[in-house]
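Need residues for this backbone.
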């Protein structure tokens, strides 16, 4: 599988071979869906909470006598039926994360990479570097590439100028290869690799 490598000025530099076992596999939406659910569940803080009867502040005295008031018998003002009382079976602090097999995680990543390649939304650039940390300069490069929503993936270390210049641009994300994930790929229209990042993804997923 051949793919062009362009410069940031959108000029073709050379071609690269892509591994068809990474960028050319069949796409199954249910696998991708499972991975997105897994990622979003891990992001949830899980700090929602209501108070049980033992946590409500208030007297332990019986509100009124057992008989003769014409009202239903009551044992505590902290009971759930009382105003300001406890909540029964309310949410408690917990983790929403769940387990997902490693092979499913790896397969889902391959599938979104294949999807971007199949849809023509995958681009490879020779390097992700600019001379100055200027947003205007970065926007000019985006204009050359004819994109306005993209996830840029570089190898191990991000170019400082490139990263700083991209921070103020909407719908643009920049990540090192170690941070590549299914949700962030799907969130943006284009997926853009540096040449070194492609070599890294071949090493990581080609095993």
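Answer:
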């Amino acid at each position: 599988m051949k793919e062009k490598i362009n410069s940031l000025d959108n000029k073709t530099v050379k071609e690269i071979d892509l591994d068809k076992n990474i960028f050319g596999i069949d796409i199954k939406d249910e696998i991708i869906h499972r991975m997105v659910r897994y990622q979003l569940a891990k992001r949830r803080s899980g700090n929602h909470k209501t108070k049980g009867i033992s946590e409500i502040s208030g007297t332990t005295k019986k509100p009124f006598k057992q008989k003769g008031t014409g009202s239903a018998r009551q044992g505590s003002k902290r009971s759930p039926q009382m105003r300001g009382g406890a909540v029964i079976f309310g949410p408690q602090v917990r983790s929403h994360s769940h387990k997902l097999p490693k092979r499913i995680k790896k397969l889902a990543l391959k599938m979104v990479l294949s999807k971007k390649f199949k849809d023509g939304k995958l681009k490879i650039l020779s390097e992700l570097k600019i001379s100055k940390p200027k947003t205007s300069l970065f926007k000019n490069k985006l204009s050359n590439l004819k994109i306005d929503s993209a996830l840029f993936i570089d190898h191990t270390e991000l170019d400082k100028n490139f990263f700083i210049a991209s921070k103020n641009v909407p719908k643009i994300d920049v990540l090192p290869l170690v941070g590549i994930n299914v949700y962030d790929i799907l969130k943006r229209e284009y997926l853009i690799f540096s040449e070194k990042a492609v070599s890294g993804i071949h090493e990581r997923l080609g095993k």
